Amino acid sequence: MKTLLVLEGGALRGIYTAGVLDVLLDTDIKIDAIVGVSAGALFGINYVSNQKGRCLRYNLENANNKNYMGFHSLFKTGNIMNEDFCFNKLIYETDPFDFDTFNNSKTKFYCVVTNLETGLPEYKLITDIKNEMEYLRASGSMPLVSKIVEIDGKKYLDGGVSDSVPLEWALKQGYDKIIIVETRVKDYRKKKSNTSLFKLKYKSYPNFINTLENRWITYNKTKEDIIKLDRDKIFVIRPSKLVPIKRIEHDRTRIQEMYDLGVEDAKNSLDDLKIYLKREGKR
User: Fold this and answer.
1) Stretch 66-71: mean pLDDT
2) pTM for the whole thing?
3) Where are the beta strands (DSSP E) in 126-234?
4) How far apart are CA 200 and CA 83, in angstroms?
5) How far is residue 107's CA from residue 129's CA, in Å, rounded to a whole number?
6) Which of 132, 230, 242, 243 has the fewest beta carbons under 10 Å from its own?
7) Which H or E element spans position 171?
8) Taking the C-alpha atoms of 224, 14, 40 and 72 in order, what is their torsion angle to the nearest 10 degrees?
9) Residue environment code for 73-110, b if the CB has 16+ CB neighbours within 10 A, otherwise e
10) What is the DSSP string of 214-248?
11) Is 258 helix (H, G, I), strand (E, B) or coil?
12) How many CB atoms lie within 10 A of CB 35?
């Protein structure tokens, strides 16, 4: 049985996912591949590098560090998530990332990015994370508050714009079992938002604007599909209650609460998850 793990984004809501992953690291559940979106990618890499607790640790320690993420970084660098701190100092000095363990892992890792020219998602297999870190940065680069990330002549931003929860992609990959970790409660649905600022800033990218305008429709359809397939063709772990955490959260108590909920929900789901994984037959 081959198992694929799908990780939704959501900026600091993704600390919920970190809690779930830390629980999974303590089990004998084998994950053959992971696809992460935005924060799901940025936090999910710690599962593959086998660094339990790292994600929570650096988010708590830097919650009020103006050089981590926030409006100070946005005004100073043009990125709400400070590029130099997050993708240089943090991973090499402050709380070193285990590149060797990641690169030597048998677990495949994909991150989702949105191509500005096409408006479509791309699913990048990361095989050498040190040299492919820009894809992770692009996946987590939120529109309006992040600079466009250019890689090999292509321009990218947040993977969540085009595929917040890559269910359809996951179903096509041929894995026997699919586990999805969401960061929103079951009854959450997106509402149509004002895209005037997006149209102004990204006027040179009509396909990207079209994707942004329809994001709420795409997301809500995916959400309904996930609910229909849950515990049958897929297995879903999602927040069991609403924690009012902001996308850019500086309150350590909220961050800890969201992480603890991920741990609690994962532990409560383990028995059912193991039954699902042992069940014979493909999707």
Assistant:
1) 91
2) 0.95
3) 149-151, 154-158, 177-181
4) 24
5) 13
6) 242
7) helix 167-171
8) 120
9) bbeebebbbbbebbbeebbeebbebbbeebbebeebbb
10) THHHHHHHHHHHHHHHBTTTBEEE--SS-----SS
11) helix
12) 28
Cα angle 19, 132, 154; round to 5: 115
Q: CB–CB of 35/169 below 8 Å?
A: yes
Q: How far apart are CA 215 and CA 130, in angstroms?
A: 31
Site of tokens 């586990």: 179
- Enter the tokens of residue 165: 């929860």
Q: Are 36 and 112 in contact (CB under 8 A)?
A: yes
* Among candidate residues 113, 81, 94, 114, the one with its CA nearest the CA of residue 209: 114
Given a cut of 60, whether residue 282 has pLDDT beyond it is no
Q: What angle do CA 213, 246, 135 make, to 5 degrees?
A: 60
Going by C-alpha positions, the residue among 241, 222, 277, 249 that lies closest to residue 15 is 249
Alpha carbons 134 and 178: distance in angstroms, whole number: 27
Beta strands 3-7; 33-37: pairing state: parallel
Per-residue b or e along 175-198, where b marks 16 or more CB atoms closer than 10 Å to that residue's CB: bebbbbbbbbeeeeeeeeeebeeb
Nearest to 219 by CA among 42, 38, 46, 80: 38
Query: Tokens in use for 168?
Result: 């359809």
- Nearest alpha carbon to residue 112 among 143, 52, 69, 156: 156
Q: What is the mean pLDDT of the chain?
A: 95
Task: Summarize pLDDT for 12-68 with one digit per residue, the tens.
Answer: 999 999 999 999 999 999 999 999 999 999 999 999 999 999 999 999 999 999 999
